[in-house]
Amino acid sequence: MKELTLDDVAGALDRLNYDCRDTWVQMGMAIKTEFGEAGFDTWNAWSEMSGLYDAAAAKSVWKSFRKGGVGIGTLVKAAKEAGWAFNPDELDEAERKRRREEAEQRRQALAAEIEADEQARVEWHERVAVASVELEGLMAWGGKSDYLSRKKVRPYGIKFVTHGLVVVTHIKAKRIEIINGKASIDTFFVKVKSPEFDREATSFKYLRYGTVAIPLRDIGGKLWGWQFIPEKGGKQFLKFGRKSGLFHFIAADAAGDYGQGVAGFQAATAFGEGQVITQAEGYATGASIHQATGYPCAIALDSGNMAKVAKAMRGAWPEATLLFCGDNDRDTDGNPGVKAANEAAILAGGCVAIPDFSRYEEQAA
Question: Which string of DSSP letters, residue by residue, matches 6-17?
Fold first, then answer.
């Protein structure tokens, strides 16, 4: 049988639904895994047939794919199930050998590219971690936040932006700069408006007064990054920062102090049998749970991170009772909040608590 080519892939894609985002993403990942950057034009040409197509979004999504996540077999299987037939042209031995050698070269190049990408990702994570420690010293433990006031929750081990800060990521230069002070910030934004400013090589995040900053740590307590929530809401992260497996832990130390972000981790070292530890997606939800129950709470940031944090928690505290407080995303297809909480509970051996809105829905009916 001949090796799969991009022409074959184009034929297979013709059988698939380009309007289904999950299919669109899966096929893109599969193509990038097999063909690397050479596969973009084929995937993009198929994408263009959709009435939902956006060229900039397609390029951005393709760039986000990590090679190796989904194999080309996923595409072949889906296309065959949709009626596509792979045409096994008869080839002579020389042609079969040539194609096998090309496929092997492609796989080796792809493996090297994946390794280089992973190394670059790890290096950026470390740069962001260093910058995060610097940011910690430029923010305050106390402050004002309209966001916290609206949510009616208190600050537990989080910091406040009490004066403007700009975090500048110099992508090509591979460094992170933090600009502090009004005069320096004004000078920076003059440069941003200049036609000479290279937006492809430079990314920046402006942290305004009133923003709250939630420290993101691993199970050992190391600070890797921050989640920022401006006064009007919305979640922001540092560019190229790590998120997977990180969380913010709400727990008081022996003196009942939440002032330092590591206090919760220090208190948690003694957690054992009988200790209930909760987990939630967002800070406001986790803070509300802690205020209502007094239980420690791990803020996992989003549903996709629930299982990773759960695994880390169970490894650190094997005797504790884990309670996964999932978001009830009842208006979202598949209810990802409930699904993530159940998966985390199965993985780590815990219980699930989901808010029940039926009484309020009956009253509104």
Answer: HHHHHHHHTTS-
Helix 21-35 crosses helix 55-64 at what angle (to 10 degrees)? 60
Q: Scan for tokens 């079969």, then name that residue.
A: 96
DSSP letters of 227-279? EEE-TT---EE-TT---TT-BEEE---TT---SSTTHHHHHHTT--TT-EEEE
Task: Tokens 């403007």: give the residue.
Answer: 164
Provide the 8-state DSSP code for 197. Answer: -
Q: Determine the 3-state secondary structure of 175 from DSSP.
A: strand
Determine the straight-line distance between the first and last CA of the chain, rounded to whole angstroms. Answer: 62
* pLDDT single digits (tens) 245-277: 999 999 887 667 776 656 566 666 667 778 999
At 37-58, the pLDDT tens digits run 888 899 999 999 888 888 888 8
Q: How far, rounded to the nearest angstrom, does the alpha carbon of residue 235 sit from its chain's CA centroid?
A: 11
Tokens 């990054």 — which residue?
A: 225
- For β-strands 223-229 and 165-170, DSSP reports them as unpaired
Per-residue tokens: 312: 């880390």
